[in-house]
Specification:
This protein has one helix spanning 26-30, and strands spanning 3-9, 13-15, 35-37, 39-44, 55-62, 76-79, 82-83, 101-107, 117-122, 125-126, 133-134, 137-147, 160-161. The protein is mainly beta.
């Protein structure tokens, strides 16, 4: 079955409660990533998508460190209002700063549409911390790979790129 992909976001995006950066050590990793706030919607299209098939969402992240007791991030990751299983993972860290990690998630069937898809990401709120800490992290290189309908696929065109 033919496949295609859409670049949803090719520029680093920094999430959190303020533009002041994250915990010590993260500033060097976060660099000059644009601050987007606690949450953001990314709009994208998937031309000729086969909605009856699963898709694959891939991106890199750094600095996700708020987790529940099972080690999962309570931050939100949804496509078209559907939670993507696995969500945002808490990433690895060295002794001084967090490390980049690649996240690869399966998007459920009947989630994607050809047009007007929305990826929603929201940083976790951790009320157990002083001042009700909101996780600070960066995502980068967000791409979705999906199967296409055989009869609608046009060959030779450029990939779908949306910079939000």
């Amino acid at each position: 079955m033919p496949m295609d992909y859409t670049v949803i976001q090719a520029v680093r995006q920094r999430f959190g409660a303020s533009d002041l950066g994250g915990p010590p050590g993260e500033a060097a990793v976060f660099g000059n990533a644009p601050f987007v706030g606690r949450s953001k919607e990314f709009h994208f299209d998937c031309p000729s998508v086969s909605p009856d098939d699963m898709a694959v969402l891939q991106f890199t992240s750094v600095g996700i460190d708020v987790d529940d007791r099972a080690g999962r991030s309570p931050s939100t990751l949804r496509i078209n209002g559907v939670d993507v299983a696995g969500g945002l993972h808490v990433g690895p860290a060295s002794e001084r700063y967090p490390l980049w990690t690649t996240q690869l998630l399966l998007v459920p069937q009947v989630t994607l549409a050809e047009h007007r898809n929305v990826l929603f990401i929201e940083a976790a709120h951790a009320p157990a911390f002083i001042n009700e800490y909101v996780d600070s992290f960066v995502i980068d290189n967000v791409v979705i790979f999906y199967k296409t309908r055989v009869s609608d696929r046009t060959h030779g065109g450029p990939p779908n790129v949306v910079l939000g």
